[in-house]
Specification:
The protein is of the alpha/beta class. It has 14 helices and 10 strands. The strands form 3 sheets. The protein has a 6-stranded mixed β-sheet with strand order 4-2-5-8-7-9. The chain has a two-stranded antiparallel ribbon with strand order 1-3. Strands 6-10 form a two-stranded antiparallel sheet. Helix 4 packs across helix 6 and helix 6 runs antiparallel to helix 8. The chain is globular and about 45 Å long. The chain starts with a helix and ends in a 6-residue tail after the last helix.
């Protein structure tokens, strides 16, 4: 018997909730103490020359459901502050995220944002929206920083992205861009178009295609003129990839990405291993 749209929605949302529960279990570990993860401002003023030569601003964006977080998320967040004293790290909770969207987007777009059925979709969409408007570095709350940003984001970079371990998607749990970058402009437009057209809940990975790595990868391909046949892992070392590097697109292989950042939950998700 065919599954109804309501049934497909139930299955899809159930899959997303189960994934979120796995993340929560990883974050909590055996320590049930709550820690406060808040915005931290730069402790050291950057070299004035950097303010004029670096194309990506000295700001790190993160989002959490609540500022009260488990120890693992608190430690992950502090790794960014510790290694990057010349960067502001701005952490917004769900209420503050909605305030941001209401400030910078029109009422129709705000309602579309609010219509997304699960929180992870809003977290996905917010990262693109905020980096598009302000520029900077985005990192998921459970992502640890192992090397200072200025070590892996060169002054001439305008868009910085890595490749997931399976080589099929670009990584969107951490990336960086200059304000108003064309890739993120296209990405935001594509998501609003999908939301306007109505969501397809027929796949258990529907989030992946509406706000996650699939649409992120599609937008990068479209904006940069990369064919669908080329795997992201192969683009980096290709002649086209090297040409794009001269235009400010900075690439990381999955191995290079792992040297500077780690996100335990993303690496456990089945769609990144297939």
């Amino acid at each position: 018997m065919p599954i109804s749209m309501k049934g497909m929605l139930t299955i899809s949302v159930g899959f997303v909730l189960a994934s979120s529960l796995l993340l929560l279990v990883w974050l909590l570990g055996t320590d049930d103490t709550e820690y406060v993860l808040e915005t931290t401002w730069r402790r050291v003023e950057p070299n004035p020359r950097d303010l004029f030569t670096r194309r990506i601003p000295n700001v790190i964006w993160q989002t959490v459901k609540s500022h009260r977080v488990p120890r693992a998320a608190y430690k992950a967040g502090n790794s960014w502050t510790r290694l990057n004293p010349t960067y502001d790290r701005i952490v917004l909770d769900d209420v503050e995220v909605l305030e941001f969207v209401e400030k910078y987007y029109n009422q129709t777009e705000v309602e579309l944002f609010k219509s997304m059925p699960v929180g992870v979709m809003k977290a996905d969409f917010f990262r693109y929206m905020v980096v598009y408007i302000h520029g900077g570095v985005y990192a998921d709350a459970d992502t640890r920083n192992h090397r200072a940003i200025n070590w892996w984001v060169n002054p001439d970079c305008e868009f910085v992205v890595g490749v997931e371990g399976n080589g099929s998607f670009f990584c969107q749990w951490a990336f960086a861009a200059a304000p108003r970058h064309a890739i993120l402009k296209l990405l935001v437009e594509k998501i609003f178009h999908k939301l306007t057209s109505g969501l397809d809940f027929s796949s258990p990975h529907f989030v992946h295609g509406v706000t996650g790595p699939a649409i992120f990868t599609d937008a990068i391909r479209e904006a940069l003129g990369i064919s669908n046949e080329e795997r992201p892992a192969n683009i980096i070392s290709s002649e086209r990839g090297m040409e794009l590097r001269k235009e400010g697109i900075c690439w990381f292989t999955s191995r290079q990405l792992g040297r500077v950042l780690s996100n335990m939950f993303a690496h456990e998700r089945a769609e990144f291993r297939e």
